[in-house]
Sequence to fold (84 residues):
Amino acid sequence: MTLEILTPDKTVYEGPVTSVTVPGSMGSFEVLKDHAPIISTLEDGKVIIRGGGKPEEVFYIKGGVVEVLNNKIIVLAEGVGETV
Fold:
């Protein structure tokens, strides 16, 4: 599964992942391998990235949209704050 986090300015993250948690407008939800296709609006909050052979990473986004299709996750964020 691959993840891209994009802002209007740049690509913030691109790479393989095993799961991603995003701050959906109706509450946070996790995307795992073979997740059903979905498009959802996102609130300000944490995107938690797990897997890809790296330690867990956290990005703070300022709203946006997520699309999940064929094990590819694209987060279009209005902005991204500091990582932890």
About this structure: The chain has a mean pLDDT of 94. The chain has one domain: 2-83.
